[in-house]
Design brief:
- By secondary structure, the protein is mainly alpha-helical.
- The chain has a single domain, classed as Alpha/alpha barrel (Glycosyltransferase), CATH 1.50.10.
- About 55% of the residues lie in helices and about 5% in strands.
- The protein is built from 13 helices and ten strands.
- Strands 1-2 form a two-stranded antiparallel sheet.
- The longest helix has 22 residues.
- The radius of gyration is 19 Å and the shape is globular.
- The model has no long low-confidence stretch (mean pLDDT about 95).
- It comes from Thermoanaerobacterium thermosaccharolyticum (Clostridium thermosaccharolyticum).
Length: about 350
């Protein structure tokens, strides 16, 4: 697949502020402004694109999105999330998901082969936010942050390895406690509901195992992965848990809407599981998650729009959502780049 044409929509959604959140069809809708969530994940997507295609235009995007995060971070190290089209942040509550996604993106940037001058602001943003990590309460915020800490630990930078490793240990123990509290023989999961960004949690434990080499961490990562696998591949192809109801313990699995974020996060999860275990099944599953975008799904329709280079926002009960927003675009880019090494 031609990456240059696949990702044209990336440049349409991005203006001189950052990546806009929503589109009507393939046209950006400025009414809903921007989110730090999207701009953080767009850093990862653009860095992956640069690593694959070595085109300077992706470096320029990284700088744009990184600048957005610089503006979003307050003096205490927290990140504001929702920005209007006239560049005013409007949210008062701290989003742990947003914080964790920022830490993941910044850590990924430090761990990349990019120029140190691009990494410098990422390092400064991380330094200001490290003190917040110990106060995180929610599992996904912890999981995103744990992935970011893995990359910070893995990279050559000014942060002391033992200090970062200690935070990895603490977050890992917290996530394991969620698992031990909520799982049983029939429900190998961290919560009473399988909801959103599910692959992130086993992925974070796989990252932790790579650093800590603790077999208990790997066992829980693979148990929870296999539980997700039994749900999302119950029909022989990838089918995400629907966002209209999720999957609550003892109840039916929601069929729709299937969201692109589930496909790319589970692809990343399977890739790490394959790299750690060598199990060929996980490589095939990662590729199947990527294939979901191009028609190997419950509706047999492609979410990729060849004319715009964008991605539909969801699979619904009637087909595909015709809007092409930021999260879906980021999802297809990261999935494409991450799985390309397996093909």
């Amino acid at each position: 697949m031609n990456g240059k044409s696949l990702f044209n929509h990336l440049f349409i959604l991005t203006d001189d502020t950052g990546m806009m959140q929503h589109s009507i069809g393939s046209t950006p809708n400025p009414k809903y402004g921007y989110t730090t969530d999207d701009n953080a994940r767009a850093i990862i997507a653009s860095a992956m694109m640069y690593e694959m295609y070595k085109e300077e235009k992706f470096l320029n995007l990284i700088k744009r999105y990184l600048s957005f995060l610089m503006y979003a971070q307050d003096e205490d190290g927290y990140f504001r999330n929702f920005m209007t089209y006239d560049r005013k942040f409007i949210d008062d509550d701290f989003s742990e998901d947003c914080f964790g996604r920022c830490m993941w993106a910044l850590g990924y940037l430090l761990d990349s082969p990019l120029d140190d001058r691009i990494k410098l602001p990422a390092s400064k943003l991380i330094e200001k936010s490290l003190s917040i990590i110990d106060d995180l309460k929610y599992i996904r915020g912890k999981a995103y942050t744990l992935i970011g800490l893995y990359h910070i630990y893995n990279a050559e930078n000014k942060f002391k390895k033992d200090f970062i490793k200690g935070k990895i240990v603490n977050l890992t123990n917290d996530i394991i406690k969620w698992y031990e509290k909520n799982s049983n023989d029939d429900w190998k999961w961290f919560e009473g509901t399988v909801s959103y960004d599910n692959g992130i949690i086993p992925l974070s434990l796989l990252k932790s195992f790579i650093v800590l080499k603790d077999e208990k961490i790997l066992d829980i990562a693979l148990e929870s992965l296999e539980f997700l696998d039994s749900i999302c591949f119950r029909n022989g192809y990838f089918k995400a848990v629907g966002c209209k109801g999720w999957y609550e313990r003892g109840k039916n699995i929601a069929e729709f809407d299937e969201q692109p974020v589930e496909a790319y996060t589970m692809a990343l999860m399977y890739i790490d599981a394959y790299n750690v275990t060598g199990n060929e099944k996980y490589r095939e599953r990662a590729l199947a998650c990527d294939d979901w975008f191009y028609g190997k799904n419950s509706k047999g329709v492609s979410l990729y729009d060849e004319s715009s280079g964008g991605c539909s926002d969801a699979i619904t009960d009637y087909g595909v959502n015709s809007n092409e927003g930021a999260e879906s675009l980021i999802s297809i880019i990261i999935s494409h780049c991450a799985t390309s090494e397996l093909k």
